[in-house]
What does this fold into?
Amino acid sequence: MPRPIHVALIGQKFMGRAHSNAWHQVGHFFDGPRPVHLHTVAARDQGELIPFAKRWGWDHCSDDWRSLASIDEVELVDVGTPNHLHAEQALTMLAAGKHVACEKPLAGTLADARQMRDAARKAKSSKTFVWFNYRRCPAVALAHQLVRAGKIGSVLHIRAQYLQDWGGPSTPMSWRFKKSLAGSGAHGDLNAHIVDMARFITGDEVHEVHGAVARTFVKERTLEGKRGKSRSDVDDCVLFVASFKGGATASFEATRLACGNQNRNTIEINGTKGSVRFDFEDMNVLHFIGPSDDPRTNGWQRIMCTSAGNHPYADAWWPDAHVIGYEHCFTNMAADIVKVLSRRKPLVPLPDFEDAYQTQRVLEAALVSARERTAIRLSEVK
Amino acid sequence: MPRPIHVALIGQKFMGRAHSNAWHQVGHFFDGPRPVHLHTVAARDQGELIPFAKRWGWDHCSDDWRSLASIDEVELVDVGTPNHLHAEQALTMLAAGKHVACEKPLAGTLADARQMRDAARKAKSSKTFVWFNYRRCPAVALAHQLVRAGKIGSVLHIRAQYLQDWGGPSTPMSWRFKKSLAGSGAHGDLNAHIVDMARFITGDEVHEVHGAVARTFVKERTLEGKRGKSRSDVDDCVLFVASFKGGATASFEATRLACGNQNRNTIEINGTKGSVRFDFEDMNVLHFIGPSDDPRTNGWQRIMCTSAGNHPYADAWWPDAHVIGYEHCFTNMAADIVKVLSRRKPLVPLPDFEDAYQTQRVLEAALVSARERTAIRLSEVK
Amino acid sequence: MPRPIHVALIGQKFMGRAHSNAWHQVGHFFDGPRPVHLHTVAARDQGELIPFAKRWGWDHCSDDWRSLASIDEVELVDVGTPNHLHAEQALTMLAAGKHVACEKPLAGTLADARQMRDAARKAKSSKTFVWFNYRRCPAVALAHQLVRAGKIGSVLHIRAQYLQDWGGPSTPMSWRFKKSLAGSGAHGDLNAHIVDMARFITGDEVHEVHGAVARTFVKERTLEGKRGKSRSDVDDCVLFVASFKGGATASFEATRLACGNQNRNTIEINGTKGSVRFDFEDMNVLHFIGPSDDPRTNGWQRIMCTSAGNHPYADAWWPDAHVIGYEHCFTNMAADIVKVLSRRKPLVPLPDFEDAYQTQRVLEAALVSARERTAIRLSEVK
Amino acid sequence: MPRPIHVALIGQKFMGRAHSNAWHQVGHFFDGPRPVHLHTVAARDQGELIPFAKRWGWDHCSDDWRSLASIDEVELVDVGTPNHLHAEQALTMLAAGKHVACEKPLAGTLADARQMRDAARKAKSSKTFVWFNYRRCPAVALAHQLVRAGKIGSVLHIRAQYLQDWGGPSTPMSWRFKKSLAGSGAHGDLNAHIVDMARFITGDEVHEVHGAVARTFVKERTLEGKRGKSRSDVDDCVLFVASFKGGATASFEATRLACGNQNRNTIEINGTKGSVRFDFEDMNVLHFIGPSDDPRTNGWQRIMCTSAGNHPYADAWWPDAHVIGYEHCFTNMAADIVKVLSRRKPLVPLPDFEDAYQTQRVLEAALVSARERTAIRLSEVK
It folds into this structure.
C-alpha cells in the first residue's frame, strides 16, 4: 500500500471548492500511484470554514495558514487564495520544504512572481505547480499533442480570446476589482490562461508585444450590503498583438464585458499544414484540419475528445461522448500532480513556477506596451 | 442534525460507478435536507467488488443482493443491474419496505414492468424512482419548464433520436446483445430515454404508434477472450412514428450503428408558438425559439443553461458557462431523491415505476407494430 | 457556333422566376455546348405576364400554353405550374415532340404521374426532366458521389426531414392548400424532395413503408382580399418510416408547422464505414465522417463544397467559400439539361419522368399506409 | 419610362465578372427607379475581352479604358482593375463628369486615395461609390441597423478577422503579391473590408492604432507558366489593435495563411446591452444577443436574415431561408447605386471616396505602427 499524499489547502471560496473536489475525485476516477488524503484546510473566516471542511471531508481546519508549514505529515500545500497572497504563502511553504500548488496567475505582480520563481529554483526538493487547469481539458491536451507532433506544420498564427460578460456595472465590488489584491483585472485572470495555453500548445515563447490596449470601462462599483461606491482600479479588458520566437503572429484578448460570452475561452492556431481550434463553451470538442488524402472531403474535423485510448484523460471518465465538465480539468491535473509526486511523468507537461513566470512576463510586457504606447521585446522584461 | 439516508447499491459496473459518484457528490454540491450515507454495495464478483467499495467509500459490501433487504438501516436500495434482474430485485426490496431507485429501462419485458408497477402501487410506504437521468440535464429540465409553461404553445411535433455508433461488428458479445438479459437492444437502452424525455417535456402521452421498423444488422458477435461467435438476438435499431393524445405527431429512433454519432440524444419539439431543441453532445445548451417583440431579431436562441437562479440545478455547480458533464445529471437526480425522501418536492417531476411503466408500454407498442406491420393504439397495450 | 436551345416556359410565379433566372444565368457561368435562348413564356394573367417577360428577357409571351406546342423553334418546354396541370401540359408537349422539364412533384396524383411516365416512355425522341433542384446543390451532389463511391460503406440508416414554418393559421388560402390543385400539402411539396434526395444519394429504392401519419392542423384559412374562410384539405405534415431494398431503415418527415425551421431540408445517411449529413440552411456545407488513419483526429468533417476541381459545379462560380445560394441549384440543373440536349452526360444523374415516378410511388405508399394504418410494400403500389 | 443608366466597366477578371453579374441581375430582382444598360466594357486583353463582353451582354468593348470618358451616353464608370490603376482611372472619369464606382480598397497607397478623395470633393456633380460589397450582405446591413438603433447599447469591443488560406507557397505569383500593383497584400485586400464593416456597423471612427504586426511568410513565388521565382513584397498577414473615438477597443486581423479558413470574414461587436456576431462563411445568418424579458431564455439568437419585410434586401430575393450567396451583395449594392443615381436614398449608407479614404487612413496607420513599433493616433495620418 503506497504512502498517501497528505494535502493542505489554503482558501475556501470558488477555487477552494474546485480544488477540494479535485482532490476528492482523483481517487475515484484515476488509478494513481498514491492515494490522496485531504488533511487540513485553512482560511480566515471560521464561520464558513468549519462547514466547508466538513462538507468536503477535510480532516482538520485552521484559521492560520502559516500553521500548515509545521504539520510534518502535509506534503503538498495548495494555495487557492487571491493573487496578492500567493507569494508570501508559497514562499513560506517552500521554505518549510513543502511542495506547492498555486492558483493562477502565479502572482499579482511580476516582482512577486519573480520572487516565487527564485524561491522555487532554490527549493530543490520541492515541486511547484500552477493551476492552469485548461491545459488538462482533454481537447487542449490533444491540441498540444497534435501541434507538438507536427500535425499542423510550423505555427504561423495564434488567435486567443477569453471573453466573459459578468463584469458589467451592476456587478458589485470584490477583490477581483482591486489592484492591490488582484494585481490586474481580466488580464491576470483571463489573459493568463490563454497566454499559458498558447505557450503550452505551441511550445514556443513570445518574442515581442507589438502593441496593447487596456481599458477600465466601469470605474466605480457598488459595495455589497453597504451604501456608497468604491473605485475599480483594474482593467476590464486588455488586448494585445504579439509575435513568437518561431515567427508566428499572435493576438490575445481578455474581457469581462463581452455580452453573450460567458466563458468563451478560445484559441485557434494556424500552421503551414493545418489548424486547431478550441472553444471552452463546447469544451469536449477540438476542431482540427490537416493535410488530407482526398481534397473532396477535406474540412475541419469536429473531434469529440472522449475516446478512451485515443484522447488524453478520456479513459478515466465515461464512454464516448458522455461528456465531462469544467471541474474535470482540475481532477485531471490533480492526477498528474499525484504522478509527479510519485516520480512519474505527467500525461502532458505541468506548469511549475518557472513556467508560469514566463507567462507573467508576457502579461507584464502587454501592460508596459499599453502604458508606454510602444512595442516591447520580451528580452526587455525581466 | 437530520437523520442520514443510508443507501445500498446493487451493481458495480458502468451504472454502479455513475450512481456511486452521484451519492458521493450530492452532499458536496447540494444543501440537501438530509445527508446521504453509502452503506453497502452488493454484486456477484467479489474480486472486483472489494476494491470498488473501497474506491467509492461504501462501508460494506456483499455478494448476496438479497441480504440488503434485511439491513434495517438501509432506507433506499439502488438497483443498477442488467434489465432482467430489475423486477426480482425491486420486488424483493419493496416487499422489505425499502424505497427503490431502479436503472432504466424499468424492465426488459412489459410483464416484468407491469409486475413492478403493481408492486409499487401496493407498497404504499415505499417511494420508487427510475434513473431517467437526462430529465435532470439542466437543458432538458428547462425545456420541461418552458413547454409546460406554454412558452411554445400547443405541441405539434416531437422529433427524437438517440444515435450511438459503438455497436458495429467489431464490438464483442455482452449482456446488452442478449434478449434474455437485456430485453431489447437499442430500443430499451436508448428509445426508453427519448420516449421518457418526450413524455416529461410535453406532459402528454402517446396515443398511437403508426408504424415501426426494427433491425438486427449484426447477427453474430465474437466472444471476449474466447474463440467462436455468439448470436445477437436484440435489435440494433428501432424507429417508429407515433402520435400523442394532444394531437402531436412524433418520431423516435434509436440505433447503435450511426457512424459519427457517439451519444447524440436529441429532441426537438415544435409548438404553435415556438420550439425547443436539445442535443446531449452539447448538453449545457438548450435551443429555443418563441414569439418575439421584434421580428427583425427573431431566431433560435442558444441558451447556456448554467445561470444560477435562472436554470434548474445551475446554482449547485459553477459560475456561468463553466459547464457540467454527463454524471452531473445523476447527481442532480440524487439531490431530488433526497428531497423526496425528506418529504419535499423535487425540482422537476421524478419518474416512479408507474411513470416508467407508461414508457415501457410505448416501447412494447413499437415492437408489436414492427412485428405485426400495423398501427396500434396504446389503449391496446396493457 | 452551335445551335441555340430555344426554351419556352409555362408559369410566372415563384418557380417561373427561379427557372427564368436559371435559363439566364446558365450562359453567364457555364461554358455549355449550346447557348440557351429564352423564347416564350406562357401564363394566364396577361397583366402580370407582360412585365414578367420583359423583366426576364423572354422574347415572346402568350396567354395560351397550348400554343407553345406549335412553335417549331421551341425545343424544350419548361412546366412551372401548380401540380394538377403538370400531366396535361407535359403530355401535350411530349405529343408535340418537345423535350419537357417539369417542376416537382411530378404530379399531384399517382394516376397523373403514371400517365406522364407512360407518355415519356412512348415519346422516345423526347427527353424529360423533373426539377428536383436540390440534387444539384453541390453538397448534395458531393454526398451522392461519396456514397456511390463506397466512402461510407453499406447504407444502414437514412434520416430525412424537410421542415418549414410558414403554414400557420395566419397564412391565407392558396392553391397549395387545395387537394384538387396541389394533390397534397407538405407531402408532395417537401417529402417529394427528400425522398428524391435519399434515392439519389444512395442509389437504392424504398422497399416498404412501415407506417405513416398525416395531419391537417389548420383546417380553415382566410381568403386573401376577401371575407370568409375556406377549407384546407391537404396535409400540414406527413411523416413515415420505411426501409430500402438494400436493408437500410429510413424516416421522412415533411411539415410546414415546425416553428423556427424555415427551410430546413436535412438528410443524414449512416453507413457501415461512415456518414454524410446535409442541412440546406447551411447549403454550401456537407458534413462527412469516414474511416480515419488516425483515431485521435477522427470526427465529422465540415466540407465547404466550393472548391473548383474538387466539388461538383464549384468551378462555375466563385473562389472558395464565396458561397452560393438557393437559385444556383436551378442554374446548375439548367447546365446539365443543356448538356443532355447536346448528347453529353450530366455531372450527376438527372431525374426524368421515370425516375420521378418512383418517388411518387413512395409518396403514395406513405399516404396509403397512413390511411389504412398498416405497413405496405412498394410492390403493392403501381 | 425612366431613362436607363448606361454603365461602362473597366476590368474583366474576378471583379469584372462579379460586377457584370450585378448590373445584369439588378433589373431582374429589384424594382429600381431606372433600368441599367450594360454599355461598354474595357480591358487590355482583347482576346479575352470579346468573349467576355458577349457572354455578359455588354454592347461594346474597348481596349482603351480612356475612351470611356468620351462616351456621352455613359453615366457611370465602374472601375474593377488592380489597385494601382484606381486613381488614374477614377480621376480621368471624374474629370469627364462621370459617376465612378471603384473596387476596394480605394487605392494601393494613401497618396492615391487622398488624390481620389480630393477629386471626388471637387467633382460636385459626380457621385462616387466604393465596392465594399459586404455592407450589403443582409446580415451585415441588419447589424448596422440594430447597432445604430441602440439595440446593443454603447459599443465596447470590436473583434474582426478576415481569414483566408489560399496564399501558401504553392500559389504562384500574381499582381496581388506585388506592392507596386496591389499596394499591400492581405491588408488592403482583407483588412480593408473589415475596417469598413466596423466603421459601417458602429458609425464610429478609429482614434488610435495601439500596435500592429505585418509578416511576409512566403517571400518568393513561382511564375505561372515560366521557370524561376519572383519576390513577393506584400504582407501575407497584418494584425493590429486599435481604439475608436467612442472608446471601444478593436482588433483586426487579415491573413491568407489561415489553414481551413477559406473566406472567414468575421466580426463581433459587444456593447453595454448586447452583441452582434457575423461570419461570412454562414453569410445568411446574424447572431444577436440583447436585453431579454426572460433571463431563463436569454441567449444568442441565430437570425436567418431572409425575411422579406424584416431584413434588408430580403424582399428582392427568395422565400425565407432560401438563402442567397456571395454575388448577391454586389447586386444589392448595384440596386442602391441605381437609387442614388435616381436621387433616392440607399437602403443603408453607401461608401463614397470620402468614406473609403477614412478606411485607407486606418490601414496606413496600421502599417506605420507595425514599421515604427509604436502606437499612432489617426489624427497623425493625413
